[in-house]
Design brief:
- By secondary structure, the protein is α/β, with parallel strands linked by helices.
- Helices cover 38% and strands 22% of the residues.
- The chain contains eight helices and eight strands; from the N terminus they run βββαβααβαβααβαβα.
- It has an eight-stranded mixed β-sheet with strand order 1-2-4-3-5-6-7-8, sandwiched between helices.
- α1 (44-52) runs parallel beside α8 (241-254) and α3 crosses α4 (117-128).
- The longest helix is centred in the middle third of the chain and has 21 residues, at 81-101.
- The two termini are 22 Å apart.
Length: 255
Amino acid sequence: MIVVEKKTIQHIPVLHIVKQKQFKEKMPLIVFFHGFTSTKERNMHYAYLFAEKGFRVIMPEAKYHGTRSEGFSEAELSYRFWDIVITSIEELSTIKQELVEEGLVYPSRIGVAGTSMGGITTLGALAKYEWIKGGVSLMGNPSFEQFALWHLNEMEKRNVQIGLSQEQISDLLNQLKQYDLSLRPEKLNQRPLLFWHGKLDPVVPYQAAYHFYEQNRKSYEGTEGKFEFITDENAGHNVSNSGVEATANWFEKHI
């Protein structure tokens, strides 16, 4: 039987998913980040597969989402996008530390994954934390600075009020550099990383992630199968069932 527990780690609401018979055992951990305007509960199919394969799973609620909602519209959330991402990256350390201190996870066997905004969060976390063993980015983008500029441009095209001054935008771009994996690819250090992306994705463009993959394949020479990219030729901004299964299989193999 798989148990789903609602709990709070420090101030962070999470779902904790694990096989009942392993509830108090020390186990490998997967932290899964949900997407923009989504909630932790809407990704339970991932958690179930991970738990079935013997992982402890934590699904945090992102800032301003779900049980942490402050009633912002989608447009208001849009210009808080990077605040949400950075907060999730910083909170990952809190989650890891508490579970390690409780003796529930192996600190050397922690994987991170997420969809869309969660995939972006995953890639930023890999740039910041060396203790992550491996990750899966589903529809993510490692180029924080470039994506932020593209995102701001798209908002302007749609006449969405950005709510940020030029000075604030400049400060934001400087802040993002420390989480930008495209600027610091050596931070991967040959850790296992899988990308999944639909080629027709209109929300998080496919090309940036694939370009990063192509640029950094050589750094994984001699490490067969640890750096992979799955392209779905027909998918837009939605992960296929095969993509979900590939994520679970990747963690089973590498974490």
